[in-house]
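[agent] plan:
  1. take the single chain provided in the ticket
  2. run structure prediction with default settings
  3. attach structure tokens to the ticket
  4. add a short note for the reviewer (M.T.)
[agent] executing step 1
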Amino acid sequence: MIIDPAEIFKVLSVETRVRIIELLKANGALGVKDISKKLGITPPAVSQHLKILKQAGLVRSERQGYWIPYSINEEAMEDCREILNEVCSCGCKGTGNFKEKELNKASLEALKKYEIELQKELIKVRGRVSEIEAE
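[agent] step 2 finished; step 3 output follows
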């Protein structure tokens, strides 16, 4: 599947669509009513956002009787990740690490910003570890 970066950025520029993707990523396949309840928006609004996400190829659905579960299209999400890696300014190419060459050339400001991002990510990971351990 070939994804036009400009179209993907346009589709993902709407916060509700990003929240839907995050919800599907965290919970697996969900129907419109479940998404609606979790996000606090109307089912028709969810349906419209899902239609756009589906047209962009980011989500997929397969009718199961009366229920239509929506899930993330992993292949399309990987394509998006590759697109973002191409425009990534830190030089990490999706590894989460600066390449050695870019690390040596990075400004203090860029490095401090990257350090803050890593600290935030570590807090999320530690929180999730604690949740799992508590179960």
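[agent] step 4 note for reviewer: Residues 108-134 form the longest helix (27 residues).
[agent] ticket updated
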